[in-house]
Design goal:
homodimer; 160 residues; alpha+beta; 4-stranded mixed beta sheet; 46% helix
Chain lengths: 160, 160
């Protein structure tokens, strides 16, 4: 099955990215590649430490690169191969990017075992746990709604 | 109450960012500012369209800018003011950035009413809805776990 073999090659490339990140001390041990029509169009590893950027997860970086290459904010029809189950930030980014399939290796529990909060953040989003260190306060809704209305009524707006 | 007045000023600045985005057609009508010790350290609006970047939400951009300015991947002690309830991507990014408080105006339902998927993605993450356009496939866990083990055993790793 050449197709299954290709999928293995894509994941091996994602692992290769993770390994670069580990050796270089760029961030956590995570890598990802994005594939379109059977070809890798972007690859990235976690660079949270190197770039002082808590959003620089492998999947986010791979999405940003792929969109730049395709000159589009939509990755419809693309697949992402990630060495770990995407955290909620990356999973939501994958939805926003309209990616069609996720292939992943390690799980959120595996990530938890090596010290990452993926599982905790999933639990908070599910409402199973509360975030002890984060306060949430609502304010100024009526003022903010004016911008929403303005945008909705704009004739030249670009929906996405 | 000067403190309450300041909070209003911060939110007004976030709205100002949203307005710039609307006028410039950079993306959705969303703005955010990050505050530390009572001072705005970064401000941003949604540039998904302008930058062809589905991750370029106001909160993500404000976090990235603030981290660059502070030369740190941690925004502990900072507050974020956003014109809309953060989507799951941005909320998880706020957790990863260790931000201490979120102030927001419009809700995920308000965003849904003007055509955005925030509410849908929350429902998918909660397991209440399924993502019809996104397949999820597990593969290669044992190979991926080797990278995790390598990182965990690395003596010079930087936890975050």
């Amino acid at each position: 099955m050449p197709q299954a073999r290709n999928k293995g090659v894509f994941m091996t490339n994602a692992i290769g990215e993770a390994e670069i990140g580990i050796r270089s001390r760029h961030g956590g041990p995570f890598g990802a590649v994005i594939v379109k029509n059977g070809k890798i169009i972007s690859r990235a590893h976690n660079t949270v430490i190197k770039d002082n950027d808590p959003t620089a997860h492998a999947e986010i970086a791979a999405i940003r690169k792929a969109c730049k290459i395709l000159k589009s904010f939509s990755l419809k029809g693309c697949e992402i191969y990630s060495t770990c189950e995407p955290c909620p930030m990356c999973l939501a980014a994958i939805y926003w990017a309209r990616i069609s399939a996720i292939y992943y290796g390690c799980t959120r529990s595996d990530a938890e075992k090596i010290g990452f909060d993926d599982n905790l953040i999933y639990s908070i989003l599910k409402g199973v746990k509360t975030a002890s260190d984060l306060k949430t306060i609502k304010m100024g809704r009526s003022e903010c709604l004016k911008s929403f209305k303005k945008w909705k009524q704009k004739k030249d707006r670009i929906p996405y």
